[in-house]
């Protein structure tokens, strides 16, 4: 049965399953594959659920397939870490040549993160590619780019992950950076031309509605400041609980604002689900206000997309387009400096659209202007000092200075930001700090691997005796971006 499953088609059953906590992990039901036509399952459910001895879990298990719901990696012998990762690439490789349940069809094989994450994720895939590059797996790097292009061509954007319930949001736009990484590997400029239309389509998605905006207003992923400058924000079109965290969202929504669900979902588009970065009071998820913020990381990534479009236009001698995208990039570079640089604290911060000022949250996304070489030497020096004093611990770089129990807060260290930190410091000649970031995190990864035989989704940077925690679900093993960043850092 190839019919695509949209969660709303089984909404009554789905709602009952999630509210009854039939499965420990709410994601289980979103990944289920119907064994019969959905209309039949719905009719059967309505007819049977009233009966005295009805068992909801038994009903679900007899009408849905849960094969491959969680990836578990078992090893009889403890291999050296690099050998373990080489084996993992194959074990984490999946194909989806046809639609199955909520899973979207993709033309090429891909690498999944691992654990409960058994689908294609957008920004994870860039960090996975870093390791594939080291492993010499160029074809898989090309596959990932081709899958992203397929999604952008068919949907207009790359969804958060390749499932139907993620069709209302994307993730940080890394497609242009993926092309850079492939070029660094193959030295073939033709991919900038080959994927030009894809780059333009993704740019159109992020800029949709910009031309009609009035000063001090926002629509979709674009905002216009009171000064008339266009910035971007994370956004999700839906304002309902996330199917994969259904009951959590419903419970968290009590005593929260009217657009709570959309604010939650919009934070998910950033990849940072969740963090004090999004909370108005810096502590409680009920105060989440993602929609009120323009983010430094997103605007830097869109600057890179504009620069890449200018480069691709130049390669094709499309002079007018080259001038247009170059001007857009120059303007964005200037407004990144204007809106995100906070002179007082010597770092980059997000911008509050309503209050017309920087947010209080200090977070590691301040690295993006250094990673992409947008920052001046003085700005880079100030950020490096800030990072070393407030974010670098024995086990790596933390994401924020706030400890809220949320997984994207202190004391967790996530793979992407170890690479961003290392590369950012190298870009501005802070080589000693770069080495410290690399060594602190890599030794933490090696310690946990030695003790558990696993590579984790995230690590505890402070307590290097334990495995990291916090967040909506237990720490996962596999793990795509950890494997990629570890290999890349060890090679540098």
From TrEMBL:
InterPro entries: 6-hairpin_glycosidase_sf (IPR008928), 6hp_glycosidase-like_sf (IPR012341), Glyco_hydro_37 (IPR001661), Glyco_hydro_37_CS (IPR018232). GO terms for molecular function: alpha,alpha-trehalase activity. It comes from Chryseobacterium gambrini. This is Alpha,alpha-trehalase. Keywords: Glycosidase, Hydrolase. Gene3D superfamilies: 1.50.10.10. Signal peptide: none annotated. The keyword Signal does not apply. GO terms for biological process: trehalose catabolic process. The keyword Hydrolase applies. SUPFAM superfamilies: Six-hairpin glycosidases (SSF48208).
């Amino acid at each position: 049965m190839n019919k695509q499953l949209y969660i709303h088609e089984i909404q009554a059953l789905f709602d009952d399953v999630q509210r009854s906590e039939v499965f420990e992990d709410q994601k289980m039901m979103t990944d289920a594959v119907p064994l019969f036509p959905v209309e039949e399952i719905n009719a059967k459910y309505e007819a049977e659920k009233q009966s005295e001895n009805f068992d909801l879990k038994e009903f679900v298990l007899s009408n849905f397939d849960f094969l491959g719901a969680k990836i578990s990696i078992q090893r009889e012998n403890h291999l050296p870490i690099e050998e373990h990762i080489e084996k993992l690439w194959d074990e984490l490789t999946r194909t989806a040549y046809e639609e199955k349940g909520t899973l979207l069809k993709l033309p090429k094989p891909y690498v999944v993160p691992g654990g409960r994450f058994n689908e294609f994720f957008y920004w994870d895939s860039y960090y996975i590619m870093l390791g594939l590059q080291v492993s010499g797996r160029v074809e898989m790097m090309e596959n990932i780019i081709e899958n992203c292009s397929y999604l952008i061509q068919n949907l207009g954007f790359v969804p958060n992950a390749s499932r139907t319930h993620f069709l209302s949001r994307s993730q940080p736009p890394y497609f242009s950076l993926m092309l850079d990484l492939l070029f660094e590997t193959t030295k073939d400029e033709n991919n900038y031309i080959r994927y030009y239309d894809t780059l333009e389509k993704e740019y159109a998605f992020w800029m949709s509605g910009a031309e009609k905006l009035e000063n001090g207003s926002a629509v979709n992923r674009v905002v216009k400041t009171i000064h008339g400058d266009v910035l971007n924000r994370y956004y999700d079109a839906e304002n309902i609980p996330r199917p994969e965290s259904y009951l959590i969202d419903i419970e968290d929504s009590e005593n929260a604002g009217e657009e709570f669900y959309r604010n939650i979902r919009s934070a998910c588009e950033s990849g940072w689900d969740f963090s004090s970065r999004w909370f108005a009071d810096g502590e409680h998820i009920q105060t989440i206000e993602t929609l009120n913020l323009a983010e430094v990381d997103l605007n830097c990534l869109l600057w890179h997309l504009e620069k890449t479009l200018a480069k691709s236009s130049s390669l094709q001698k499309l002079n007018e387009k080259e001038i247009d995208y170059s001007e857009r990039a120059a303007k964005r570079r200037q407004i990144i400096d204007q809106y995100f640089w906070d002179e007082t604290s010597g770092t980059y911060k997000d911008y509050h659209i309503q209050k017309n000022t920087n947010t209080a949250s200090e977070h590691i996304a301040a690295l993006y202007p250094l990673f992409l070489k947008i920052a001046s030497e003085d700005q880079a020096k100030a950020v490096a000092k800030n990072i070393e004093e407030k974010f670098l611990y024995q086990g790596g770089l933390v994401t924020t200075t706030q400890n809220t129990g949320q997984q994207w807060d202190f004391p967790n260290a996530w793979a992407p930001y170890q690479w961003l930190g290392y590369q950012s410091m190298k870009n501005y000649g802070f080589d000693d700090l770069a080495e410290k970031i690399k060594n602190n995190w890599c030794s933490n990864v090696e310690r946990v691997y030695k003790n558990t035989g696993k590579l984790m989704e995230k690590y505890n940077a402070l307590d290097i005796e334990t495995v990291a925690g916090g967040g909506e679900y237990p720490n996962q093993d596999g793990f795509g971006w950890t494997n990629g960043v570890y290999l890349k850092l060890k090679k540098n």
